[in-house]
Amino acid sequence: MIDDHVLVSVDLSFPSLRSPELTDALGRALADAGLPSQCLSLEVTEASLERDPTFAATLLEDLARLGVRLCLDDYGPERSTIGALSSHPFGTVKVGAATGARTFTTVLGAARAAGLETVAERIETDEQLEAVRNLGCDAAQGFLFAAPGPAPAVGRWLDSRKG
Length: 163
Hints:
CATH class: Alpha Beta
Helix content: 40-55%
Number of strands: 6
Number of helices: 8
């Protein structure tokens, strides 16, 4: 069994969201990997949601019932809406650290008001990490910590964490 503190994040593209087998395939993959569902975070951009809002709402509810974490990715840099934070079962919102302090602070406030965890992404320097900590962000990710990896490398790393 994988340590339940491990969180694997997967970006879902619009075409993958449209797959009729997505929820079933994820359930099988979690079972095959021995990964508890709460250790999988599926990241969806607001742009993907806007392409087919009705379908996206239904799919996100199905994924939430599967027990995976849902994350609204890349929130804030362009034309994001407050409705995206409150009308879907997201638990986390991610915003790029390079969006500027004013925008970043506004997004953090909106996310907190919606009861969501906040993650600063694209953290590359100690200075960026310190800045997002000072603004009260819950977590951070980026090249400062580790580079993203291909599935086989991530799989090997997860295997090394099994107890």
